[in-house]
Structure formats: C-alpha cells, structure tokens
Structures
1.
Amino acid sequence: MNIDVLNLNNNELLALGAVFKYLEITQKQKITHFSLPKHFKSSNNMILDSTTILNLGLLPNRENKGKTLFDVLKFTKTPMGSRTLKQWISKPLIDKKSIEKRLEIVEIFRNDPLIMEELKEYLSSIRDIERIISRISLLRATPRDLVALRFSLEVLPYINELLSALGLDTLEEFHDLIGLLHSAITEEPSTQVGTGRVIKKGFNNELDQYKEIFENSSVFLKEIELKEKEKTGISNLKVSRNKIYGFYIEVTKANIDKVPPHYIRKQTLVNSERFITEELRNLEEKYSIAEKKIDELEKRLFNNLILELQKYVKDLKILSSNISKIDILRGFAEASIKNNYSKPDFDDDNFVIINGRHPVVEQFTDSFTPNSIKLDRSKRFVILTGPNMSGKSTYLRQIGIISIMAQIGSYVPAEYAKLPILKIFLPELVLKMMLLVENLLFLWRWRKFLPY
Ligand SMILES: Nc1ncnc2c1ncn2[C@@H]1O[C@H](COP(=O)(O)OP(=O)(O)OP(=O)(O)O)[C@@H](O)[C@H]1O
Ligand SMILES: [Mg+2]
C-alpha cells in the first residue's frame, strides 16, 4: 500500500497515522486488509452536518428509532445493504449523472414487480459477507463463516439471471472459490477447528487416513468386546472409549471374580470396574497419535485455506459493495411502490414539489395533507405562516427530506418533483429563525449563490 498516491497533506497524514496506530494497538496484529482511504471531497457529496441529520430525522438514534428516513427506505435484505444505506443517506450525491443512474435502476426494478420480489428472496439468503471478508483478512474467520460465504456465493447465479433479464450489470460469480470451499469444508462444520469435523473428506489424503482410524473404531471395539466376552465368559462385558480415560473394558461388580489377572484396574464406578489390557493400551496410543495428527493437520489446512482465501478479498469487497447497491436500489423500488412515490426530475432553475408529503409523518397518520412548493428564478423565497401546530415545521422538513431522497437516488413522496441539485443543506439556520420569529421564514438559496 503506497500512501503517496493519495496526496495527503500533513494534517491528513497525521490523522491517518493516528488511525492506524489505534488499530494496531486495539487489533493487536498487523493490519493488512484495509483499502486505501478515499479523499472525501465536499464537491462529491451534499454537505449534511450532524445537526441537520438529527433535525430532519434522517438516521436512527436512541430517541427516534423507527421514525426516520432510514426506516422508511430500509427495504434492504442484506446486512451490508442496510449499513450502506445509512452511508448513502448521510452523503447524498450532487452529480446529476450518478443520481440519475441510481434512479434509472430503481425504475427498472419498479417496472418488473415480479422480478423485484424474486430478487428480494435471493438477497435474503445472502449473509453478512462484508463482515466475513474482514474476518478472513484478520485470519479470524470460522468454519461456519466459510460455509455462510459459500451459501451466499451460490445464490449469485440466480441473482445474475434476474439482473440480466432486466438488462442490468451482473455480479462476478466466483466459481473457483465456491469449488474450493465446497471441496474443503464440510456441510455442517463444528465451530472448533481440529476436531476432524471441519475439513471435508477427500481434501487431504493424510487427514483422511487418520480419520479412518476413528471411523472404523466402533466395529473394531465390537470385535475386541466379542473376543473378551468369549475368553472371560462375562456376557455383559463392554469395551468402550472416552476422551479422558481412553479405552477400557467395563465389568459389572457381579462378575468381578471372573476378571482375568492380566486386566489392569483403571477406574472404579458405583456398579462396575473399568480395566485396561496391553492390547488396548497399544491401541490407545495409536488413537491418541491419530487424534493429535488430526488436530494439527486440520488446523494447518484450515489456516492455509484462509490464506488462500485472502487472494479473493479484494474482489469479494467489490462484490459486497455491488450487492449492497442492488439491495438498496431494489429496496427503493419497493418503497416507492408501497408508499406511492414518484421519480424526481432535476433542473437548476426550478424548485417544484406538487402535493409533497413528509415520508415519515405520513406513515403515522391516515390523513396527511399534501403540500406543494413552487420556486423559480423570479420567486426565490417563501414566507410561511400559520397557527401553532399547523404543520409549518413538517412542511419545511419535508422539502428538505424530499431533496435528500432525490439526491440519494430514491423516488420521492410527491405527485411530481422538479428539483435543483443542492450542494449544502442548512436547516439549522432556518430552525434558529423559527425560534426568533413566530412565523417561519423558509429561505431557499440558489446553489450557485452559495459561498461554499
Ligand atoms: N401535512 C400534514 N398532514 C397531516 N398532519 C400533519 C401535517 N403536517 C404536520 N402534521 C402534524 O401536525 C402536527 C404539527 O406539525 P408541526 O410541528 O409541523 O406544526 P408547526 O406549525 O411547526 O407547529 P408550531 O407552530 O408549534 O411550531 C404534528 O403532529 C404533525 O405530525
Ligand atoms: Mg414548528
């Protein structure tokens, strides 16, 4: 990772250095899986400060859970999709082409509700691959992570079929990786590596050979048991093995006088005694060597597998981000149908919303009254008056939220909306004025006249 390409200034370098130092200390290992940091230029996104995010109720916090823009738009089915949606909401786009590209995809999903629903099903079976990928990078992935990853990857061809039916870009399918995971990891691995129940049969010869010893053990024990029963005449004699004591011959107290002298006493239970013989002792040694070998081998094979998987991390991250995008935009389409949203238009000379609604407030009332706004070059501000509790603040917020929705690529709660692309949103200023003046003044400033 070469940091020069970023052209960071001194302050940025210091901040980045501090971040890495912090990670090094808290993660207690080498940091290998980070992508190069990106320069977030204010010219790429609408500036939304934390007060605005709070005032407009964009993202959930402890107080407003279930009543934010995020909640209204969250039709995502993957964990990374809903995390990415939060990022989108806090960083609306200001590039018209990028916004329109998102809106186009939403429209495509909307026009095919059947495929939209089917896609939802497939997305639902994709696991949190973003987190799994980072655990792979940190060498902390578990066997079950790898199964979850494989399950998720196996869904991709189905998703791609739907995407290409809609004429959309498809996702990389990772057939090699699926093959590797399939051949390496059992269908239901134990959580612990080293038990012999993680690496699949056929993946490694040596491991299979050691495991075979155990697979045949029950037959083997039965054979010994039969032989010993015959020799001693103890009909209920049992030969078994447990983790702590190893192999043993168990004889009930009633038959204790029939025990031959070469049996060595090992353990006394309430109703029985356990013994070992020379033969069993040798067998025990063979078994514990095999056990140790299985533990060693499986751990080594698993670690090597994780190292091998690291080669895929970069592409998997791209996959994860593409899945998030599809997940969010499909969700926007569903939200737009469920809530009756329309596709916004963009035009720098007009600010028109016909019969707009507040997307959150309307969820909690059956009788939301739509409101319009029409601004243009000759009419640049509105004086908004009304009695207490008449909906002034809601109206103001709804205009802000509609702008933000449009600029993240979502349809908007209005019959029609033609909006300029805003680079900055400052309701804080407006809200302060609300405190000063009984009647609220809503001031909309032209993007071009903004000092930023
Ligand atoms: N268009 C609407 N349709 C239905 N209910 C609405 C509408 N706008 C606002 N409300 C509801 O009316 C109540 C008052 O809204 P709001 O706080 O926006 O009024 P306000 O005029 O700003 O009040 P105040 O003068 O006290 O600041 C809220 O409970 C809100 O959910
Ligand atoms: Mg108010």
2.
Amino acid sequence: MQLDGGGADVLGFGGRREIGRHPLHIGGGVRKGDRLARGRGDAMQDAAEIAGGDLSGGCACGAARYRVSRAPIFVNNCHCRRCQVQTGSTSVVNMFLEAECVDLLSGRLSEHVVKAGSGGDHIICRCTACGTALWSYYPRLGRLGAGVRVGTLDDPARVKLDAVIFTASKMPWTALPEDIPCFEATYNPAELLPPDRFSRLEALIVQRAAGGG
Ligand SMILES: [Zn+2]
Ligand SMILES: [Zn+2]
C-alpha cells in the first residue's frame, strides 16, 4: 500500500508476507518535524457514504466524466519529487478509495506507466482527448485502489485533506497548513485514520495479498 499522493509509493508495509503478522503497522510512523493533529472528526469522510451524494468530476476538455460513489479512505497532498514532475506543480492531491467505487461515465482513458518509489508500476489514467490525469493505480494495491486527482472533482472543497506528506521535498516557498497533519515523508495510517476507514484499507491489502488487483 502506498499513501503518497502520486509517485513515491513509499508507505512500505513490508511486502505481502508482513501483512498477516503486522496488520496494524503498515506505515513509516511519525518522524521528526512531523505535525500530527489529533481530534479530527470529519463527518463526511468518516462515514463510508459521501454526504450530499456522489462526487463527480472530469477532465479539462469535458470528454471524460466520472463519478465516485463512496467517501475516500484517505486524502493526501503529496510534495514528493515524483509528484512534482508528474504534475509540473508543487504537489498533487489524491483521494484514495476502492477502485470499484470510481466509475467512468463518458470518454475514454489511456494508461501511462511510470515508476513508483518502490520500483513498481504506477499507472496514470488520462483522458485520451486532452491528456488530463484523472486517477492512478499504484503498485501496492494494483487496480483494487484508485488515487483520484482531487483537482479534477467538480467541487474539490467537498473532500477533506487528511495529511500533507513528503514536506521534506516541498518547494521552499510553499506554505503548509496549520490544521492538517504534515509529515516529512509518509505516515502510519493505523495511527492517523479513524478505525472504519483504516479497516477499508486493510481489506484492500488483504485482497491484494490474495492475488487481487
Ligand atoms: Zn479530456
Ligand atoms: Zn508524491
């Protein structure tokens, strides 16, 4: 499993054999300089359903439209160098959830493979007409989990950010939020996520370990 925003694939729960033995420790933990805000309780995201109905989004040209029918498991703003290169920007914001809950309603997508931090394939799905990246599949979860680009949602403000990651490589003039946990690299989702959301992540990891995705 990877909890970065796009390219680093660094969550590193230690490979498939580790999953059964350490199901609750799949991340790197808190590092020096990390800020961990506790006591969050976002009603929209802690529920499996999305308050206000499904999320919708699409590409820049309008050909590709999609719908997300379940609340994200987690949402990261990733400042790793891979995400910076892939987006040409300071960082990326991705919401991760079960891929089966993301439906392409119109248009066609092309898949573009780049290397994740683990060395595995990170597959970026783009509108064939305009090239906008809509979501990605990462090596740790394969096609079981999708990392949807929050910027392509019709209303990105409906999604609450869980964490800012890889701040160690952020561009020096980029400001970090005061009220969102920030990490120099990645984090342990067992520590950060509410139990209901973490259990969804665990379920995907178990499916992946069994050969899914
Ligand atoms: Zn398009
Ligand atoms: Zn990244």
